[in-house]
Amino acid sequence: MTEAAKEKCVFCDIVAGKAPAHVIAEDGLSMCILDIHPYTKGHCLVISRRHVPWWHELTDEENASLFKLAKDVAGRMMDKFKPDFVFLYARGRRIPHTHLFLIPTYSGDVLDRFFNALENFQESPQMLVKLQEPDAMAEAAALLSKV
Question: In CATH, which superfamily holds the domain spanning 3-106?
Answer without folding.
Answer: HIT-like (3.30.428.10)
